[in-house]
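Problem 12. The chain below contains 523 residues. Write out its predicted structure in token notation.
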Amino acid sequence: PAGEMGLEPLFQAWSYFRRRKFRECADVCSQLLERPPGEQVAGAGPYFTFYFILIQAAWNLKTRALTEMVYVDEIDMDQEGIAEMILDENAIAQVARPGTSLKLPGTSQGGGPSPAVRPVTQSGRPITGFVRPSTQSGRPSTMEQAIRTPRTALTARPITSASGGYVRLGTASMLTNPDGPFINLSRLNLTKYAQKPKLAKALFEYIFHHENDVKNALDLAALATEHAQFKDWWWKVQIGKCYYRLGLYREAEKQFKSALKQQDMVDTILYLAKVYLRLDQPVTALNLFKQGLDRFPGEVTLICGIARIYEEMNNISSAAEYYKDVLKQDNTHVEAIACIGSNHFYSDQPEIALRFYRRLLQMGVYNCQLFNNLGLCCFYAQQYDMTLSSFERALFLAENEEETADVWYNLGHVAVGIGDLNLAYQCFKLTLVNKNDYAEAYNNLAVLEMRKGHIEQARALLQTASSLAPHMYEPHFNVAILSEKVGDLQRSYTAAQKSEEAFPGHVDTQQLIKQLKEHFAML
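Solution.
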């Protein structure tokens, strides 16, 4: 019988799949699978053979459709949670050599704006121009700091371990099958399916992505690669992905290396680089990417991978060069344009940054963050007519309170710049209304309170700011200045030391410490 478009049902399901209408495709396949055998076909030929092929095709197609509904690209999906950061058993060297570790903020290569100009994350790296999963969480040094990490993925809880994140991702798959799981994994004979390569690949992706059952997926992949006499590179990559999810990074590295020997693939290089970055070996990952570029010249994902690593290692100038190389190959690459624009802005070139952000606007990017950045660039480039209209548009496009808080905070800076301190005070207050753990707003409010002569309010605000963001040097320095003014020299010295620890190159902090030491010597 023909479907609603006058097509044979299986062909109709395939048409839905090709047009990415996965829900409709799964429904048509379900109807095919639920029919009694007598209704499946009406035609000549070996009946049962044809029936079996039809059922197999419908089962395979439904499996692929359900997988696509919850599929997330493993290369970009990489969130490092509290368990991975604090309970890390893969530590190789506690004190890494400069420029060889992502975990120590002190190992920077320089070449970019200082923390006095460009804000940093709690791991000591400058804030990037493009938010990625790996740049959201940071690398806290203590459990307390990890729990205080800014919320990611806009959930009400701090990001836990990666496996927990994947489990929550998998729970969404229950919505795709209201009647229960499509395949009962506990009753599945994996050995039988491993001997049928076409079915095995679809089944593996279903188990791995839809059911999030890494152990069964690993068992199936091991049996399938054994059946292929260890000659199929695809299965080796899948085994590597399973090991990576389970935290067995060295085993994953072996599988990805073996797969690369059999078949040179860009995706495999990216997976292997992910393993090295998780093992905190950025130099090895850089070498891998550069070797990959020899074999795949001009491959955008590899050049972008190099730029990201340099950015995480604080080597901003090298990162900018590689992002420019990305734009030579793909001049519509949003991440590269955003990161170069951000770098120009913090290098005191707002006019050039404005060109990059306008380019994003011309490409069709239309969101709160872009108009927020356009407003800042217009203000610092002295194009005041566009500043407030950009911020108004950003407030209108804000999708959550966090974005609204960022816009009000920047408006506070604009108000300080034009000398309207009452407006600045209101803007910073509105920032805290939208996000009550905004450390920078607490710090700036404290400065305004100090100007009004409200010493106690300023001290309380600064203490809040320094406890929320111990990686920022400004609250510590302000506490030191405030304490020195009121004669509390011991507290001033302690705060100044914390400020120096957060930003060793801050001249005012060094001068204050020198003055305090001279004063203590006189006593």
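Discussion. Confidence is low (pLDDT under 50) at residues 40-45, 149-165, 167-176. Students who got a different answer should revisit the alignment rule from Section 12.3.
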